[in-house]
Design goal:
The strands form 2 sheets. Strands 2, 4, 5, 6, 9, 10 and 11 form a 7-stranded mixed β-sheet that branches. A 4-stranded antiparallel β-sheet has the order 1-3-8-7, with no helix packed on it. The termini are far apart. The longest helix has 4 residues. The protein has 129 residues and is mainly beta. The chain is globular.
Length: 129
């Protein structure tokens, strides 16, 4: 079955960095968009980044551009989220998710949570001094 497992979260000081990983299994990694989302307490879940293995394309939300980089390893079926210059407002549970839309990349799927059907359990990122 489809599985996504996040790792790499933790406590970091403002200005610091973390790299999250999303290990996937149970589906054809290159053929489905894989997104990163986050949810802070009391807020709605929001899209952060998206990666498509087939064409190695990626998109990032405006709130994290120039600070976050999404990448993937097709052989390891893993998507990474490199987060630099972290701010307290980045504190949230970070989730990765994938869709049921075969062959549609991030440019079409976008960061709409409703288009992502399978979700990991999340990893906590806390940015605090």
């Amino acid at each position: 079955q489809v599985q996504l497992v996040e790792s790499g979260g933790g406590l970091v000081q403002p200005g610091g960095s973390l790299r999250l990983a999303c290990q996937t299994s149970g589906f054809s990694f290159e053929d489905y968009a894989i997104g990163w989302f986050r949810q802070a307490p009391g807020k709605e879940r929001e899209g952060v980044s998206c990666f498509t293995g087939r064409d190695v394309s990626a998109i990032n939300s405006d709130s994290v551009k120039e600070r976050f980089t999404v990448s993937g390893d097709n052989a390891r079926k893993t998507v990474y989220l490199q987060m630099n210059n972290l701010k307290p407002e980045d504190t949230a549970v970070y989730y990765c998710a994938t869709t049921t839309y075969y062959g549609l990349g991030c440019g079409i799927i976008g960061l709409n949570t409703a288009r992502f059907a399978y979700w990991g359990q999340g990893t906590q990122v806390t940015v605090s001094s």
